[in-house]
From TrEMBL:
Reactions mediated catalytically: L-kynurenine + H2O = anthranilate + L-alanine + H(+); 3-hydroxy-L-kynurenine + H2O = 3-hydroxyanthranilate + L-alanine + H(+)
Pathway as given in its UniProt record: Amino-acid degradation; L-kynurenine degradation; L-alanine and anthranilate from L-kynurenine: step 1/1; Cofactor biosynthesis; NAD(+) biosynthesis; quinolinate from L-kynurenine: step 2/3
Family: Belongs to the kynureninase family.
PANTHER family reported in the protein's UniProt record: KYNURENINASE
Protein species of origin: Roseibium polysiphoniae
PTM sites of type N6-(pyridoxal phosphate)lysine: K219
Entry binding sites for pyridoxal 5'-phosphate: T94, T95, F122, P123, T124, D125, T164, D193, H196, Y218, W248, T274
Protein name: Kynureninase
Keyword Hydrolase carried by entry: yes
Cofactor(s) required, per the database record: pyridoxal 5'-phosphate
Described function: Catalyzes the cleavage of L-kynurenine (L-Kyn) and L-3-hydroxykynurenine (L-3OHKyn) into anthranilic acid (AA) and 3-hydroxyanthranilic acid (3-OHAA), respectively.
């Protein structure tokens, strides 16, 4: 008979685990890359496929309000990231949304040419900014500094500060409010990528005075592989921006079929083409899990899980070197360690039921999702890690040679 782990006593989120489909024998520490399937999503999908698509056909756009799904889902995400009503839409990918917000922000600061980011940002954000700078006649500069130098690099030639709040590799978390304030003080605008924040801990976009934000639907929001992303525009900017991607779904009257583009009111002008109804349905259903949850409760449990993991690994696995900040205040909901043979180590962990991931050259990364993880899971994961290290199981050819894409 199994005993409750002492740190799991009085866990207010314990019952949430049953809301997810976790494969038997798997301890899933990768919800920061792809979230787990919420148990009720397949039934909702089946209903929308068979009843709505199957029976309503084209009438579904009106009968089931498919056309408004981006705003509906956007508002639900907005609640989790501290956005105002009607300030978020769920659409496209994070990468495409980066393009939209950087181009919109640059147009709001016409005389300025510099985009500031850091080398901890996820590469797609940097690539999109580089591509945009090229498109704008090579007139703009993407300036990249170290995360710890960002604050000092905010100078009065900046047009835009573009950062990811939580570093995908190290879990280090920027101070969104303080850096946004600093950017505003020099007349720049602030864009935040919340890929590793939304659904992981409370975010306060409105209270931080952020100008723009984007983020993923498939990580902590559990919307499924390739789920629609989201985009936030502060209400004060919404009617001043002229989108670079001027698609018909961002037109003020898409079904008037005018020959000239006129932007929709408010956040809707960030929409581009036809919404992916099935993907939005999965994301919409997945968000039900958050309906009765206080993000502050998620945060407290996340800190506890991460701290317990760090303490156990450092105590029992001295070969592992902590990469993430030790201070929970400046860390998201993931913990990374360095190990020279990290790739083989992660392969051995996965083969033994502990799923995390590896980021080159030597970082193993573990995401903690309080909705479906317990301290008992963390203890078991460290048991497996310790065994793999003490037996040098990672050194087997089978783990060293295996190729994977993620
Ligand atoms: C911070 C960040 N931004 C963007 C992305 C990627 O966005 P997309 O879903 O467009 O591939 C990721 C992860 O893939 C990410 O970690
Ligand atoms: N988006 C991904 C994908 O399509 C395949 C594999 C992994 C991903 C990821 O989400 C990577 C992730 N953003 C990261 O933090 O590394």
């Amino acid at each position: 008979m199994s005993h409750l782990h002492p740190l799991d006593e009085n866990d207010p989120l314990a019952a949430k685990r049953d809301a997810f489909c976790l494969p038997n024998g798997v301890i899933y520490l990768d919800g920061n890359s792809l979230g787990v399937l919420p148990a009720h999503v397949p039934e909702r999908m089946q209903h929308v496929v068979e009843k709505q698509w199957g029976e309503s056909l084209i009438r579904g756009w009106n009968e089931h309000n498919w056309i408004d799904l981006p705003q509906k889902v956007g508002n639900r995400i907005g609640r989790l990231v501290g956005a105002e009503q009607e300030a978020v839409v769920a659409c496209d990918s994070t990468t495409i949304n980066v393009f939209k917000v950087v181009s919109a922000a640059l147009a709001l600061r016409p005389g300025r040419k510099v985009i500031l980011s850091d080398n901890g940002n996820f590469p797609t954000d940097l690539y999109m900014a580089q591509g945009l700078a090229d498109l704008l006649a090579k007139d703009h500069e993407l300036r990249i500094v170290s995360p710890e130098d960002v604050a000092d690099a905010i100078t009065d030639d900046l047009a835009v500060l573009m950062l990811t709040e939580v570093d995908y590799k190290t879990g280090r978390r920027h101070d969104m409010k303080a850096l946004t304030e600093k950017a505003h003080a020099v007349g720049a605008l602030a864009i935040w990528d919340l890929a590793h924040s939304a659904g992981a801990f409370p975010v306060d976009l409105s209270g931080s005075n952020a100008d723009f934000a984007i983020g993923c639907g498939y990580k902590y929001l559990n919307g499924g592989p390739g789920a629609p992303a989201f985009v936030y525009v502060a209400p004060r900017h919404q009617n001043d921006i002229r989108p670079a991607l001027t698609g018909w779904m961002g037109h003020v009257a898409p079904f008037a079929f005018d020959l000239d583009y006129r932007p929709a009111e408010g956040i809707n002008r960030m929409r581009v083409g036809t919404p992916p109804v099935l993907s939005l349905t999965a994301l919409d259903a997945a968000l039900d899990v958050f309906e009765d949850v206080d993000m502050e409760v998620i945060r407290q449990k996340s800190i506890s899980l991460c701290e317990y993991f760090i303490a156990q690994v450092e105590d029992r696995c001295p070969e592992m070197e902590l990469v993430s900040p030790r201070d929970a205040e400046v860390r998201g909901s993931q913990v990374s360690f360095r190990f020279a043979e990290g790739y083989a180590l992660m392969q051995a962990l996965i083969a033994n039921g502990v799923i995390g991931d590896f980021r080159a050259p030597d970082t193993v990364r573990f995401g903690f999702t309080p909705l479906y993880l317990s301290h008992a899971d963390v203890a078991r994961a460290v048991d497996v890690l310790e065994k793999i290290l003490t037996t040098r199981m990672w050194d087997m050819d089978e783990f060293r040679m295996r190729r994977k894409v993620t």
